[in-house]
Amino acid sequence: MVVKSRQSKRLIFWCWLVGCLSVLIGQPVYNQIMLDRRPPVVQFTSAVAFNSPVSPGSHLGVLFYREKVRNDCPVSAHTEIVDVDGKTMMIVDQNNVPGGSKNEPAWTGSFYIPDDTEPGSYIIRASLSYQCPGISQPFTYNQPVIPFRVKLKDK
Q1: What angle do CA 78, 145, 147 make, to 5 degrees?
Q2: Are 44 and 143 in contact (CB under 8 A)?
Q3: Which domain holds residue 94?
Q4: Which residues of the chain have pLDDT under 50?
Q5: Residue 32: CB partners within 8 Å, gap ≥ 6?
Q6: Is 120 helix (H, G, I), strand (E, B) or coil?
Q7: CA nearest to 145, candidates 96, 100, 80, 101
Q8: Structural domain includes residue 1
Q9: What pLDDT was estimated at residue 76?
Q10: Domain tally for the chain?
């Protein structure tokens, strides 16, 4: 039978302790080093409405061209339409989740134009906020404005 000396027991204990601490401290440090800090969108190049003029109470189809590099950041939007006099109306649409895949150069969406919208020229202004994992401050973007027209309501 081999009897371990007191020194070898201490050495084994210290090696075990250092190994445990390395795992406990090393993993968070590794995670911080490997954290993707890139913004989710590099640039928005343009945006177009593809069914303007649109009637009040219907959806305006839009196409956003952008260079997106990440898919892991949930996004929220603040969207409004503005008339030629500067009057703004918030647009809320449950089906309008901006973003799309990073593999696509464009994202297609739609905005509901409220029933009480008067005929005339408008623009859509959208501000997007991407909250990426591990980063406390959101990435915020103002998309290019989208000019469109509202026609008289179809009878």
Answers
A1: 120
A2: yes
A3: 41-150
A4: 1, 94-96
A5: none
A6: strand
A7: 80
A8: no
A9: 84
A10: 2
Domain match, 112 and 72 both: yes
Q: Which residues contact 79 (CB under 8 A, 6 or more apart)?
A: 90, 91, 92, 93, 96, 111, 124, 125, 126, 127
Output the CA–CA distances (angstroms, integers) from residue 63 to 106, 115, 134, 140, 154, in the order listed: 7, 22, 30, 19, 24
76 and 140: one domain? yes
The partner residues of 106 in beta bridges, in order of sequence, read: 65
Residue indicated by tokens 């008289």: 152
**What does the pLDDT read at residue 69?**
86
Give me the residue label for tokens 């089906």. Answer: 95
What's at 148, amino acid-wise? F
Residue 71 neighbours by CB under 8 Å, 6+ apart: 40, 101, 102
pLDDT of residue 147: 94
Q: Are both 96 and 109 inside the same structural domain?
A: yes
Answer yes or no: do 84 and 109 share one domain: yes
